[in-house]
Structures
1.
Amino acid sequence: MTTINNLFDELPPDRRRQLTDIAVEVSLPRATRLFEEGRRADRFWIILNGQVALDQHVPGRRAAVVETLGRGELLGWAWLFPPYLWHLGAETVSRVDAVEFDARVIRELCESDPVLGRAMYRYVAKTVADRLHGTRTRLLDLYGPQSSSGLDP
């Protein structure tokens, strides 16, 4: 699990202060829609407690939940990569307390400060890699061979 501590571990103390100075603690009630697929990604969160469901639009059906995030996890990375649009939607499953960051401010800091920028990109890349691995594991559970012999019972 990639957490805010992982990000802070990569930073010198003065850079940690920069991030904590611009962070905003938020409390979000259950069933709060945080963002929609295809809309502008202008912020991101690190979840302190509670759960958020990531969902994908399915034409003619209800959105499909593709992953649920919880304590210590990064919510949102589309803000870091042009064209800065969400690839999924997100809704709180329970009350969520989180640390919220303004994406534009963080992007500007990353551009002006290579140490902070490298740490942020590593943090987001690790998050993406961990989630990709988790997705592959779930796909194998759903569609992979059911036994190690390769033969059906």
2.
Amino acid sequence: MIDLYYWPTPNGHKITLLLEEAGLEYRIVPVDITKGDQFKPEFLAFSPNNRMPAIIDPAPADGGAAVTVFESGAILLYLAEKTGRFLPSDLRGRKTVMEWLFWQVGGLGPMAGQNHHFNLYAPERIPYAIERYVNETRRLYGVLDRRLAGRPFIAGDDYTIADMACYPWIVPWQRQQQTLEDYPDLKRWFEAIAARPATQRAYARGDARQN
């Protein structure tokens, strides 16, 4: 059984989406970031960037010692390779999924995260920062909307870890001061993923304090 060190944030939800889709057994170990659990020495021992999520897999594919993985994108890649699912095996398909996975971890996530920070959590309102990150979030939504034109999923016909990486960062679209109706292809994609049974199971486990 995989131990998932988790708190119900977009990056945490990425991993439960994949675990539920793949049907892997896992146990949630809450990392309460509101109490600073991410700074505890026992967590830093295998997640040195003091960020969750992280996993411990006691049964890696090579049959060796338990494997620890930190960083949500790396975890998605590790689990996709472990299960042989949600990541194409052909060169071009894999390349496309990797492009959009890295787009999310390097762009959509950080920019939307700054949007959340300056809109909701900053001790003072800084209009320039708010405008900057709301506008950048809007630009990235547009990039994703254009990508999804004529495609059911980001990489094409199949649901992959690229979709799992991006979806949780669109869930709080209202907090990001966006309107899904402005992005019809993104909206169609978003609603299709929201309707997946595994998505619903993943979010039902979303309050780590109840696990």
3.
Amino acid sequence: MTLDGGCYCGDVRYRMEGDPICVNGCHCRDCQTLTGAAFAVNAMIEADRVTLSKGEPVTDGFGTKCGRCGVLLWATHPMFGDRILFLRVGTLDESERLSPDLHVFVRSKHPWVVLPQGVPAFETLPGEGETLFSAEQQARVAAAMQV
């Protein structure tokens, strides 16, 4: 899968090459505030599979965004460092092609958000003994972390 995306004003454009490791719906209060929505949809993908095709985004404590319009394009997570990106699916030109494989931090989910049946959901992050990733997904994360 190859998908292009960018910010609202068009100053920054990027390409995501390959399927995401997973796509999550994050219902934490931080994601709600950062997106101005009920939850964020993030495509977790290796950083080397995302390339800039236009512009120079800026990175701050919240993530990487367009300096002109301020749209957050992707962020990192302390568990994964800068080798795994959490790309904001809404910034993709064809964002409808990706839907969440799982939902996290549903303890702070808005009550009117109805989660689809059969999609794993976690009160926070998966706890000890709970499997978040398949063997293939775990291998991709491990490979990215060793680069």
